[in-house]
Amino acid sequence: MNQITPPPKVEIIPSSAPFSEAQRSWLNGFFAGLLSTDGPTPLSAEQGAAVMQGPVGDGDDGEAPWHDQTMPIAERMKLAEGRPLRRRMMAAMAQQDCGQCGYDCHNYSDAIANKSEARLNLCVPGGKETARMLKSLYEEIDKAPPAASPDTAAAPATATPAVGGEPGRSRDNPIAAKFVSRRLLNKPGSEKETWHIEFDLSGCGLDYVVGDSFGIFARNDLGLVDQIIAMLGASHTTAVRGKTLREVLVDEVSLSPAPDTLFELISYLTGGAQREKARALAQGEDPDGDAATLDVMAVLQKFPNVRPHPEAFVEALEPLQPRLYSISSSHNATPGKLSLTVDCVRYVINKRRRLGLASTFLAERIQPGDELKVYVQKAHGFALPQDPKTPIVMIGPGTGIAPFRAFLLDRRATGAPGKNWLFFGHQRSDCDFFYQEELNAMKTAGLLTRLSLAWSRDGDKKFYVQDRMREVGRELWTWLAEGANVYVCGDAKRMAKDVERALVDIVAQHGARSTDEAIAFVAELKKKGRFQQDVY
Ligand SMILES: Cc1cc2nc3c(=O)[nH]c(=O)nc-3n(C[C@H](O)[C@H](O)[C@H](O)COP(=O)(O)OP(=O)(O)OC[C@H]3O[C@@H](n4cnc5c(N)ncnc54)[C@H](O)[C@@H]3O)c2cc1C
Ligand SMILES: NC(=O)c1ccc[n+]([C@@H]2O[C@H](COP(=O)([O-])OP(=O)(O)OC[C@H]3O[C@@H](n4cnc5c(N)ncnc54)[C@H](OP(=O)(O)O)[C@@H]3O)[C@@H](O)[C@H]2O)c1
Fold it and tell me: From CA 409, how far away is CA 534, in angstroms rounded?
């Protein structure tokens, strides 16, 4: 069995904190355990090598039938039943291969299984349910029988952690870039708030290729932070981690959603029914039917008699994770500049305004000239075709337009002669037509060979990009037959699946194939890299 070095004795609760010696000792123990649940102690190089000496093949066939971003976690886990632990860990992830964790799903799970990655909470799209499942799967590693266990021994050596490297090339080594400006893309009357955001990379020297994404380290809203400090009965200058409490809450920890460890802490600081409730929440149960709405502030409101010590409180929170955005500019067209197309997440729960962390940071908190920590996330299989003559079909409703604006700007800058067809759609033509003038100018200039639009709320019935695709299915099939690449970007949960279904129907109808043959045809397009997706 792999030996894990026990974590060193952790003194988290300062001697000045208002606890008895027994309470302090107990809380220190609690946090020592808690810190190790944030991730196992990483193995040393020798320990890692020892793990790798196990059988390289673990009998798994490499298939991943759960690799579908629209499938609920329970179904994914079911499909992975009986597989080696590393494969079940992969099924626990959100299946977006989005790169937000610094890996793709397959490599992140392998890295956890071979203990070269200590952090179990990096899957942002999977959120708490992925983190919980990984924690429980992780506990199986050391329970598994020694040596011969394929589960523990067989994570391949390709699962290397994405640490270090050149600055600005990974989430673990970000670089400072300058925020330049924001411009609202929606016109009055819109229900959406989507921003064109610009950065200056000339100071940091970072470059990128179209198709890549940009990682942003955002800061929490100061208003929310100050409310939390007041709820804790603390001062914003209270010293924590060698900084002020306010600095730590703004820059270092996630304030939404509330992690299980916060409920655990609260369960230890209260009694009776409140303790039972906090314990249940920490176990993933939902005693009051409100678990999904509990951010950190809501937890303090729910347990008004519990006021954790600031030091203990921040240690019970999760680190702030970066967010990824598809780059909507081309370095070839505008060297040293980078733009994003960001939909702002705002919603109200129990009369309290909730703010998406990074989107509202970009929409209102960061100011022109400010610096922020960023990195370029290389795309995995989402890029312009190597042959500039290859025609491309781009399907990107809403913010899905981002990488396609970049593709078009790049093809113009490099003089690529291939034909370009864009399907764009959004709610209303008069207020949600992003980059309207620019796209029309590209059409007039002949760069944009075809522009097909779909407005979902202009008429009585919803009309989506896939409805427009079906209308022009014959021409779309002709482009495919000429060797066009097809790209989809935007919403993963519904749109991407519906667009793929429409493509299958078009291939069946206009390519004279049965449905099964059309499905196989689209699968083959994917395999050959002619059908690529950037969905989230
Ligand atoms: C590869 C990739 C590329 C991406 N590209 C883009 C892009 O080009 N443009 C873009 O806008 N986004 C893009 N995203 C999404 C982006 O990374 C963020 O997830 C998004 O901006 C939300 O982040 P946030 O920090 O603002 O919100 P968060 O703080 O992460 O909050 C979002 C969460 O709030 C909750 N929530 C949201 N709305 C509601 C509601 N109405 N009721 C209850 N709960 C709710 C949900 O749990 C949701 O997961 C991309 C993601 C990936 C992985
Ligand atoms: N969880 C959800 O339910 C949900 C839904 C939408 C977006 N999102 C997320 O919100 C973020 C930003 O979204 P966005 O601003 O890019 O735009 P968006 O909200 O995805 O909407 C863009 C356009 O797509 C339409 N649309 C909705 N369902 C569709 C489907 N099944 N097939 C094709 N088109 C469909 C929308 O129409 P209507 O809105 O009029 O139906 C709208 O016209 C993304 O991260 C996305 O994943 C989440």
Answer: 18
